[in-house]
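In this supplementary section we document a worked example of the pipeline. Step one takes a protein sequence of length 246 as its only input; no multiple sequence alignment statistics are reported here. Step two produces a three-dimensional model, which step three serialises into structure tokens for compact storage. The input and output of this example are shown verbatim.
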Amino acid sequence: MKLLVCISQTPDTTAKISFNADNTEFNNAGVQFIMNPYDEWYALVRACELKEALGGTVTVINVGPAANETTIRKALAIGADDAVRIDADPKSAGFVAKQIAEYAKNAQFDLIFFGKETIDYNGSEVGAMVAEYLDLPFVSYASKLDLNGTVATLERDIEGGVEVLEVDLPFVLSAAKGMAEQRIPNMRGIMTARTKPLTEIPAVAFDGFEKVSQFTLPPAKAGVKLIDPNEMVELVRLLHEEAKVI
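The serialised model returned by step three reads:
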């Protein structure tokens, strides 16, 4: 079984967010980067579990500069067998999807994993785009995956219950909470990751169909107003005149 896990590098959740002078690019000066948690904890770990149970290989792929190789090596330490880095700035979801699809189209992967979204842009776009480029089924926000031969049974949470799906391999999925449990790389994994293959390939040409106009920070949180329980008239006035639905 050949499994492909698509990983992104994102700012640490504690990073201070700012943008350049014209608010069109993220300012990464002094920012600590990590592997996107949804890619790491759910997509990558579940792929490694399937490899360990059923045999096969796990390849991780990342679109980004050479600086991302530390993050890629962590994925190898967790259990991936080899890695591919497409040497390009991941300028948009469409660009990233095109690069991954071009790599995967002739590689005959049985399953392509994504985390449900990245924690920086929260777009949930790339997995569906890759599936469209490859003309494969796409299952989003899957919380459970079992394989029986060439048929996969998946679960995902929906409003009011759980949806159960069956789909034939190959397909693309995005993994959500419940798919797997986080793994911490052990010393053996860290040591072997240094010698596992990491291939760099150039990006393919892509005419983008999206452009960033401007980033804006959310408004600062206002202070909390405490109302005496006996001042119900004042509470009603504030709810009518000042409360905002966000």
